[in-house]
Amino acid sequence: MALTTSTMIQNIPCTLVTGFLGAGKTTVINQLLSSKPTDERWALLINEFGRIGIDGALLASAQDENADAGNIAIREVSGGCICCTSQLPLQIAITRLLSDHRPQRLIIEPTGLAHPRELIQQLSAPHWQTALNMQAVITVLSGVQWQQQKYRSHDGFQAHVRDADVLVINRYTQLDADELKALQEWIAMLNAEVAVIWTESLSRTEDNSSNNTTTLNTPSSTLIAQLTKPSHTISQQRATDKTKPNQIRTSLKPFTSLMSNRATENDQSLEDIEADTDLPYRYHEQQQDVLLGGWCLPAHYVFNADGLQEWLLRLPNWQRIKGLVNTSDGWLKINFTPDSLTITTASAQIDSRLEVILQSVIDNGVVSNKAEVENTLPSLSSLDWQACDNELMALVIEDTP
Questions:
Q1: Which domains does the chain have, with CATH numbers?
Q2: Which SUPFAM superfamilies does the protein's record reference (predicted)?
């Protein structure tokens, strides 16, 4: 039977989880997924700038111990931002998730390098108003990142706060009283209506018998409640769209046409890569003001765990490092940001994956305009990737297929 809009599930609750690169979105999404009723089907759409597809594997690995994990469908759109240049990758990804898995809730995680306003504008289009019931936009903010002037003065960093309904603040316990006040004032300046959840302060179950308790909610219940709250940000965007004169709307293709099209380059999955390329596989490319590189490696390569960590941390100007790798310490999940180095154990995978994002900098500040990008990227673009390959392969201590 051909898929049409009349046979598509309608009014699916949908939540955006946004935040700048390295803010901690994966932790928040895992909290949301852990709240799923056992009799419901949920779907998660992840957008990554890189092409290897690490975040989906990290989340899938975190769900391995969940007996109900089969009721969570995870799909990745890799190789660029789903909200840039064309709506087609977003349409294809959402259409496939809704038609293939018929979920009762959808969570979307856009790349941390994107401006959320573009995605909000797309999801405010008339078509999605019937297909998706948009809930509160949840944005994750790292207090450690905010402490640095290069972040809080960066338009991309601010954009996530401006377009949030709910702001989840983590990694803020090291801020003193003056910094906490300055952070609150900074948030109010950008978005006076946003609701704020402070994660560490609510990380324990509250004792209702204590006179010092000012709230009865744990962070999980406070956060999970946002799944059923309507988005004020998206309602405003839809109202703005209706009042724009002579507005030109992009014509959306029917679901049947989308389903019959082959995936675009931006929708290429790891399975597509593996079908065309023998392992080991490595890519590198430049996007906006960052350089990306990634490796997909045979599962039987066993890497020296300590040597791998040391090598990754020596990469120039790295902003994010993610991986699922078979090492001398077993399978490990690697999740590095400049303020947080996390390595945990993982179940065995079909392959090892590594992805790095290298950030251009000027005077210890994030590059913020095209001229600065052109002046600073050549040093990163000339990075000797073949030498990186050789150094990485030198860390293989066992290779038994």
A1: 12-257 (3.40.50.300), 278-399 (3.30.1220)
A2: P-loop containing nucleoside triphosphate hydrolases
